[in-house]
Structures are given as C-alpha cells and as structure tokens.
Amino acid sequence: MILNCILPVLIVGISAIISVSCSQFTPIVLWHGMGDSCCFPFSLGAVQKRLSEELPGIHIVSVKLGNSLVEDVENGYFMHPDKQIEEVCKVLNNDPQLSDGYNAIGFSQGSQFLRGLAQRCPEPKMKNLISLGGQHQGVYGLPNCASLSHPTCDYIRRLLNHAAYLSWVQKLLVQATYWHDPLNEGEYSAKSTFLADINNERIINKTYIENLQSLENFVMVKFNGDTMVQPTESEWFGFYKPGQSKEVQKLQDSAIYVNDQLGLKQMDQDGKLHFVELPGNHLQFNWTWFEGNIVDKYLR
Ligand SMILES: *[C@@H]1O[C@H](CO)[C@@H](O)[C@H](O)[C@H]1NC(C)=O
Ligand SMILES: *[C@@H]1O[C@H](CO)[C@@H](O)[C@H](O)[C@H]1NC(C)=O
User: Fold this and answer.
1) Which tens digit of pLDDT belongs to each residue from 224-235?
2) What domains are defined for the chain?
3) What range does the record give for the signal peptide (predicted)?
4) For atom 13 of ligand 1, which residue has the closest CA?
5) What is the pLDDT of residues 93-122, one digit of tens each?
6) What is the Å distance from ligand 1's center to 207 Cα?
7) Measured between alpha carbons, how far is 198 from 185 in angstroms, rounded to an integer?
C-alpha cells in the first residue's frame, strides 16, 4: 500500500510530475445537516471514519462552511444556500483529487444543497447523489411537530407561513428558503429564494435539467418514522397535494414530474431514481444497512 494518497510518478524523459490518485474508489463529498458540522466525532466524523475503513485510501471531503466548527454550525442556519453552494463549488473545483468526479452523500438539508450543487456546479462532476432524509419539496412544519392533529403545531406553521416569505427572513434564515406552503403555492414559488429556483418552479432553467440528468443515480432515502420533516414524502420528492395540508402526493403525481419541468420523469424512466425507505426516525440508520444498501451499491 502506498502511504500517501497522491503518488507522484516521474515520467522518464519528460520532466513532468503527474499526480495519480492511489485509491481505486471514487472520492466522496459529505454535506451535513442543520445543527451539525463537518466533523463532530459523534456524527459526520464517525461516518467519515467508517467510510475510510471500508474503502481504504478513499478521498473524502466533508463540507465545512466557515473557519471553525461553530461557524460551520451557524452557517447551516444563517448562510444563504446560494452562497453555501457557491463556496462549496469553489472548494471542490480547487481539489485536484476530485477532477475525475465524486459521489455525494447529503444528510437532511445537506441533501437538497447537494442537489443544488449538482445542478449549478457541473465541474467537478457529481456521479451518484445519495440523499438521506433530504427535503426536496421543502417542509411545512416544525421539527418534532409531526402530528397534524396537534393544534399548536398547525398554529405555528400557519404563523411561520406569513414570516417565512418576507424577504429579510429569506435572506437571514436558511430554513425559510425551503419553507413550502401548500396552501399558497403561488407565494411559495414567487418568494422562496432557493427551493423554488432549483426546482424550476419560477422559470425552467435547462442547465439545471441537463446537469441533474447527468447524474448516474439519485438515491433518496426516506425515514418513515421521521418527526423532524413534514411531510416525510418530501424525502422522496413528494409533497402535500396543492391547496391543503393533509393529503400527500407522490412525486410521480406532482406537477414537477408530470410536466417534467426538472427532468425527473426522464430520469425515472432511465432507472436513475431510487426510492429507499427505512422505518425509523430522522437519519436513524445503522452501519450494516448503510454498507449493504449504499456503500456496496453505489460507492465501491
Ligand atoms: C441557469 O442556471 C445556471 C447555473 O446555475 C446559471 O448560470 C444561469 O444563469 C441560469 N439561467 C437562468 C436563465 O436563470
Ligand atoms: C439495521 O437496520 C436495518 C434496517 O432498518 C434493520 O433491518 C436491522 O435489523 C438493523 N440491524 C441492527 C443490528 O440493528
């Protein structure tokens, strides 16, 4: 085994040094969720460690925004996703070990940010996108307020409805940028400064479609017992049926798919969309499952 992951090969006769990555595995980019950071040893730090053990020599980049772990956590709330994606795009672009592409794993909101990255930042190339509990159609509800029958929850989300689309709130609070009010789809698509854009709900950006379709696989993992994400169907790119907030609609029945405004129908027909479900709460999975269903299928 080569100790360093970059093996400099001196080509005799040509005074050039070519860097060859020694690992046979495609590099991985991880993007953490809200309230988390790149590297806490109890969360993504542990994931990174397990992946390195499983795939020896692999190059892993765990997205970090800001200069410290605290800043990284704060930016998950307060740095606009557009800016986050722009910065991550630069970092990945400047990483020579990613020049042949990478696989991406998103945790919670990190999943929709990675999808935004795939759509906006084609270089370096994302190959497989794994979304763990991502909210691809946004959220309408507060964490741990899953029970629709609880009057306070519904009250709070109606209240946030008014605040979420105020332009200063959109600028200030990351989670407002993927707040999706099904009672007022028009306001959502006009005022959501991030999600409505990457979902082509304002204008159809053909570049987004082309870039998304160039993925090899888009794997969406939904946690059926999720109390953090409302509705959980958003983790499979579905949402509430427009005009009400009780009945959910699968991706395949929604306008974004039927009109193929983001190219998802084509991707589905090409066998690139994968819908995976787990019984537990938000991001609750064990390594045995992860190894068998994610690592062996998409990362080796
Ligand atoms: C479409 O998306 C690309 C990539 O982010 C961007 O450069 C371009 O300006 C967008 N086009 C429109 C019409 O918004
Ligand atoms: C790991 O998770 C899978 C899927 O939820 C489950 O079937 C399995 O029993 C779990 N294994 C352990 C050791 O907890």
Assistant:
1) 999 889 999 999
2) 25-299 (3.40.50.1820)
3) 1-22
4) 205
5) 999 999 999 999 999 999 999 999 999 999
6) 7
7) 15
